[in-house]
Amino acid sequence: MTILLFSASIFLTLILVYPLLSWIVSLFFPRTKNQLNTRQHHYACVIPVYNNLTLARNCIQSLLSQSYSNFRIYVVVDGDNVVPETSFSDKVIYLYPEKKLGSKHRSLHYVLNFLIEKPDYVIIFDADNLAEPHYLQTINQYATPENTAIQGRRIAKNLDTVYACLDAANEYYYNVFFRRVPGKLRSSALTSGSGVAIAFETFVRFFDFKPVREQLNGVIHGEDKYLQAFIVMCGGRIKYTTACTVYDEKVARGREVSSQRARWFISYFKCLPFNIQLVWDGIRHLNWRKLVFGLHASYPPLFILLGCSLLWAAGMLFVLPTASLLVLSGVACLLLSFPVFLMAGNAPRKVLLSLLAAPRFIFFQIAAFFKISKAYNKTLVTQNNRNVSLEEVRMYQKIIADQSMVSKKPERIHR
């Protein structure tokens, strides 16, 4: 029994130290030279909108201001009491479903029947997103046959409350551990749900993916989690680049944290079997890309991992003190990874300081965990209301950067 308990403690400690360890290992991997695309691909930018078409106008304007011109914007306007909008550009097509769709994945599927011309890539945006002017130009440079999907850097457009800062801290953490690190380890990055370009043929085939097809008329929480698993299962690669940025609205209140995280937890547990299968396939077929991606994609939600680890360490304290200390050292490594990853991702000082209020955020995550059973078959929508332009956000970002004295160094494109 002692050997079994100690072995379990070692396994748990390995899980705890994995983020920091994988980041350290990735630092020793040589940087690969990017093979850049020179062809002018055609892009279909899809913006699913639910009951907030006004919010999408700034997103549309940021896309119309792109330095790249070979694209069209498809706005799927869904919800209650929809008021038709007149298109002010031949690049913008508004689609109004006859019946309420009620979910993002159905909106993405709906647009397939209304494409004016066949695109090479589909790029998914949320209504609250704002894209930098060179976003599409940079995505196009990475749109090579090797990259089935390209994920740009996503950061917060608002840091006005402690909850927004903590949500932004989570995004910076994800940008490093779940996106940059797998890429440097020669694997696939995880997507962030918006600002991601997918090869059109793969995007079409995704809706024939069994779990997606079976839930097409139901509710899918976190369609991006299914999409990334599908891409890697099919042998594709997801490229992450920090050379282009999309701004995303962060939750401003505690109850919004609960609603958002409940949706995330459901998507994590629903996709967990596919991610574990990728780990197994990676081991069985000696496929490094699937193994590393599967390990990152199946990594447990942090507050659940920390909670279980502390309970285990408390129990072992009276049975096997050495094992308890081992697990607590792993907990320390996991906690240390937060500020390390935020600094590696050039997070503003305001975001770093928000970690002091992390217990408040964790409280609402716990509340979200107990909402899972009630929310399992419901569509959960995060309320967004920061109706600001790209210019306003960039000015705000400059003020935050000046205050924090943090220099932002985006990834260079190696020719």
Main attributes of the structure:
Spore Coat Polysaccharide Biosynthesis Protein SpsA, Chain A; 8 strands; alpha/beta; eight-stranded mixed beta sheet; single chain; 415 residues
Compact summary:
This protein is an alpha/beta fold and 415 residues long. It contains 16 helices and eight strands.
Explain what the structure shows:
The chain has one domain: Spore Coat Polysaccharide Biosynthesis Protein SpsA, Chain A. It has 415 residues and is of the alpha/beta class. The longest helix is centred in the middle third of the chain and has 31 residues. The protein contains 16 helices and eight strands. Helix 1 runs parallel beside helix 12 and helix 8 packs antiparallel against helix 10. The protein has an eight-stranded mixed β-sheet, sandwiched between helices.
Main beta-sheet annotation: 8 strands, mixed
Low-confidence sequence ranges:
none
| Tally of individual domains | 1
Q: Supply the CATH architecture.
A: Alpha-Beta Complex
Q: How many strand elements?
A: 8
Mean pLDDT: 89
The CATH homology group name:
Spore Coat Polysaccharide Biosynthesis Protein SpsA, Chain A
* Top CATH class: Alpha Beta
Strand line-up of the largest beta sheet: 3-2-1-4-7-6-8-5
What global shape is seen?
globular
Instruction: Tell me the strand percentage band.
Output: 5-15%
Structural class: alpha/beta
Secondary structure blueprint with pairings:
Layout: H1 2-27, E1 43-50, H2 53-64, E2 71-78, E3 92-95, H3 104-110, E4 121-124, E5 130-131, H4 135-142, E6 149-156, H5 162-184, E7 196-199, H6 200-206, H7 210-214, H8 223-233, E8 238-248, H9 254-284, H10 288-297, H11 302-319, H12 321-344, H13 349-353, H14 358-369, H15 372-375, H16 390-404
Parallel strand pairs: 1-2, 1-4, 2-3, 6-8
Antiparallel strand pairs: 4-7, 5-8, 6-7
